[in-house]
Write a structure and sequence with these properties.
The complex is a heterodimer of chains A (692) and B (146). Chain A has 692 residues and is an alpha+beta fold. Chain A contains 18 helices and 17 strands. The N terminus and C terminus of chain A are likely disordered. Chain B has 5 helices and 5 strands, in the order E-H-E-H-E-H-E-H-E-H. The two termini of chain B are 21 Å apart. The chains are: A alpha+beta (692), B alpha/beta (146).
Chain lengths: 692, 146
């Protein structure tokens, strides 16, 4: 290097001695050359500056050097004007030396530029730079390829022209963020390719500002996110499919939805659902195949080709994913079998019903072999899992429906049994009673005293039996002779009950009073029976004095949907409301109370009295079968209500005391029952009648 | 109360001998002369009315007491056949049965039964009903001319 420098200096001497003027010319040329150098440095600098910061520092250094050398040259030219030959020669040498140094820097720089250019253009991501107005002033090959343009075609165009309409808003937002914040990170855009196609990209952009902080433009890194978008779309579709599958509770529907949706989602030529039989064999139960390819469902699957040990492997969760069936090492007969259906590639995922292998989801590619993406196989697995859940639900539902049918059937059978048995039992019993009576008629006093007594007992027992059968029959009739619900005026119901009881009322001297009674939603005949049975009981279980009975009513808000029997504490009785019906605002039900001053009921029997044939007294004191309250309970429950009793209630705790016309200390029992009010929920109640 | 001097012919279609006997007891000891013929199922009833088989010399009845539940051919079928037969359809038919089922009652009247009576359990009531039937049809009602 030193030798080169000294030879250049000696040439400088010769030149300087011959033509001094040339010196100036040479100096001028040098200035031009340096300026040119500087331009190229600038160009490189701009290209390189965005790569990274050490390169940026390098650029700054190079530029500083070249600027400095330009200044030096200018001074040198001034000195040459003084024709100070020696100094000039010295300076010329110095300048020449400096140029050499610059050449060296230039060559180093050029190799760096080439390196950075290479890196810039062959980066796996796209790069571009925009000016202040958004014009593309630089773009790398990767991005050009991404968009399908040649460099010349796109330089100078505004970036907005390459942004799809769907992303224009995102672009504006990003630009304003760039100007204010200075950067955006991983913002998704849709870019338009030259051919009009759409490329989804993610852009990370940094704003460029000058020293004064003015926005000059931006530099962007752009990544093609087609795969990201596709897998996101698949995930969404797969979720949608899962939901579709889960929506159905019908097995066929579930499987059909599954095959159709999987075909669309994975863009395969055939989708099969294969179901294993108990013996380990199986058959295709659902198929979606594109037109032009053979249908598998229904064709006979030749057993020897089907390796049953697969079953165990699937049971262990094995997933098969075969890109090319001819390269998978299958038995020749199996490959032949697959080829018979044009299968080139296939993926197979097990379907489990709870923990047991139920079947397989199979997808076939028939047009060509296909490399399955892990995402695709995963999607198939997820959908298969959903199929399994849907199958389990469908099975549960089916079982539940069967149970419900069974219950309905057995209830109907029970009804029929009670009905028929009651009728058929009547016939022989009638014989027994009639002939015993005939016997009594003809032979009383003709046999001995014991015989008369025995006949008496026999008749008594037979008559009682007959009464019980009648009672059972009337209990069964609550269901068998039920009428559809409608609006029922309880005033009328009450009057009917009273008129049916007129003999008992007359004989006992009972005083039956009542509040104004509302209309309710129910079966009038049956409600008449409830009032009649309760008032009848109040008369029957009286003390010695003529009974006083009062029927009152309160609006209640029942717990919605709660049709189960409640205790009285679950029932809210609004004390602030008067008992007249006009002033009561939309109750969900009415709570009726039948209060008497009779003998009352011991607390341990309060529940039991509603059971069929339950009696608390001997037939001698209070005759009866013990069916009346059971019938009341059945009727009230059919109406979605509840019935209960309080006996000898403490006055202060009874909300009904004010409305009762009897003296508090003489209370016997109060029977309460709820019946739905007429409102929008009436139909709901009617629909909810239990099947009994 | 007008008394009919001729013998009244009643056909009782009843499979229960107990009921047959009770009916006989109820009809006995009455001023009216009653001839009670008894058949025990629907097929025999039709044979009797058509004077077929062993009933070649059967007498045309003035009244039929028909049980509803009968072996072989039940009361309902007998009722349909009688009411469809021009020679028999004028004979009053009293359906006398244990059934209180509404559908049976409706069915009987729909098939033109003349009345439907549920057999009472009590012996006295039974006798009373049979005698009432007798009174009604033979002392009160004008029967079609034989």
């Amino acid at each position: 290097m030193k030798n080169i420098t000294s030879s250049k200096i000696s040439i400088g001497f010769v030149v300087a001695l011959v033509v001094i003027i040339i010196n100036v010319v040479v100096a001028n040329r040098s200035i031009q050359k340096i300026a040119a150098n500087n331009r190229s440095i600038d160009r490189i600098h701009d290209s390189v500056m965005k790569i990274n910061s050490p390169q940026e520092r390098l650029r700054q250094r190079l530029q500083a050097e070249s600027i400095q050398s330009l200044e030096d040259t200018k001074i040198a030219v001034e000195f040459s004007g003084l024709l100070d030959l020696i100094l000039l020669v010295f300076l010329y040498g110095l300048v020449n030396w400096d140029i050499t140094k610059k050449h060296q820097a230039e060559s180093t720089l050029l190799s760096s530029v080439a390196e950075f250019e290479e890196l810039y253009h062959s980066a796996p991501c796209g790069y571009h730079s925009l000016d202040l107005t958004g014009k593309i002033i630089r773009i790398n090959r990767t991005e050009l390829k991404m968009l399908g343009y040649e460099e010349a075609e796109i330089l100078g165009k505004n970036i907005a022209d390459s942004i799809a309409p769907a992303s224009i808003e995102a672009l504006h937002k990003s630009l304003s963020l760039l100007k204010t914040r200075g950067w955006i990170h991983d913002v998704e855009f849709e870019m338009i390719r030259k051919d009009g196609g759409i490329v989804p990209v993610s852009a990370t952009v940094v704003a460029v500002h000058n020293a004064q902080g003015d926005y000059l433009g931006s530099r962007a890194t752009v990544i093609d996110i087609s795969d990201r978008i596709k897998s996101r779309k698949q995930a969404r579709l797969s979720a949608e499919i899962s939901q579709k599958i889960r929506q159905s509770l019908q097995l066929d529907e579930i499987l059909q939805t599954a095959v159709e949706e999987v075909q669309k989602l994975l863009e395969v030529d055939r989708v099969l659902i294969f179901r294993f039989e108990r013996d380990g064999s199986g058959k295709v139960v659902q198929e979606k195949v594109l037109p032009g390819y053979p249908v598998v469902m229904g064709s006979k699957i030749i057993d020897p080709c089907f390796d049953l040990s697969y079953h165990d492997r699937y049971q262990q969760g094995r997933v098969y994913n075969i890109a090319d069936v001819t390269q998978a090492g299958f038995a020749p007969c199996y490959v032949e079998f697959l080829q018979q259906f044009d299968v080139k590639a296939s993926a197979i995922v097990p379907i489990y019903l709870r923990d047991r292998l139920w079947g397989l989801s199979i997808v076939h590619h028939c047009q060509s072999p296909r490399e399955w993406q892990p995402k695709e196989v995963e999607t198939l697995s997820q959908i298969s899992a959903q199929i399994g859940i849907a199958l389990a639900q469908a099975q549960l539902l089916e079982q539940e429906q069967l149970q419900r049918q069974e219950l309905t059937r057995s209830n109907a059978e029970l009804e029929q049994f009670a009905h028929i048995a009651s009728h058929d039992l009547q016939e022989p019993l009638r014989m027994v009673i009639s002939y015993l009576q005939l016997l009594e008629r003809r032979y009383q006093g003709k046999l001995d005293r014991d015989a008369d007594e025995f006949i008496g007992y026999a008749i008594d027992g037979a008559v009682r039996m007959q009464t019980l059968i009648q009672a059972l029959l009337s209990y069964a009739r609550v269901s068998s002779r039920k009428q559809p619900f409608g609006e029922v005026d309880c005033e009328i119901v009450f009057q009917d009950a009273i008129s049916n009881l007129h003999v008992a009322i007359r004989d006992s001297g009972a005083i039956v009073s009542h509040d104004p009674l509302p209309a309710v939603w129910g079966d009038a005949t049956q409600l008449t029976q409830v009032f009649q049975n309760l008032i009848g009981n109040a008369i029957k279980f009286r003390r010695e004095s003529p009974p006083k009975i009062h029927v009152s009513v309160q609006p209640v808000q029942l717990e919605t949907d709660d049709l189960k029997p409640m205790t009285s504490t679950q029932l809210t009785i609004d004390l602030n409301l008067s008992s007249t019906t006009e002033t009561i605002a939309a109750p969900t039900a009415w709570c009726f109370a039948v209060a008497d001053d009779g003998i009352g009921i011991e607390s341990q029997y309060l529940e039991r009295i509603f059971a069929i044939f339950q009696r608390l007294h001997t037939r001698v004191t209070y005759p009866g079968t013990g069916i009346g309250l059971a019938i009341c309970k059945k009727i009230v429950e059919r109406h979605g209500g509840t019935i209960w009793v309080e006996s000898n209630p403490v006055v202060s705790e009874s909300p009904l005391s004010q409305s009762l016309s009897v003296k508090p200390e003489s209370y016997g029992s109060v029977f309460y029952f709820t019946i739905p009010a007429i409102s929008s929920t009436s139909t709901q109640y009617a629909n909810k009648q239990p099947h009994n | 109360m007008p008394t009919n001097s001729r013998t009244i012919e009643i056909l009782l279609v009843e499979d229960n001998p107990g009921d047959v006997n009770l009916t006989r007891i109820a009809l006995a000891d009455r001023e009216i002369n009653v001839n009670l013929s008894v058949v025990t199922d629907g097929v025999e009833a039709m044979n009797f009315l058509h004077r077929q088989g062993e009933y070649l010399h059967a007498i045309h009845p003035d009244l039929i007491l028909l049980d509803w539940n009968l072996p072989r051919k039940d009361g309902r079928e007998v009722l349909i056949e009688i009411k469809a037969d021009e020679r028999l359809q004028r004979i009053p038919i009293v359906v006398l049965t244990t059934s209180e089922a509404e559908e049976d009652i409706l069915k009987a009247y729909n098939l033109h039964a003349n009345c439907y009576i549920t057999k009472p359990v009590d012996f006295d009531k039974f006798v009373q009903i049979v005698q009432s039937i007798e009174d009604f049809w033979f002392n009160i009602v004008q029967l079609p001319p034989g």
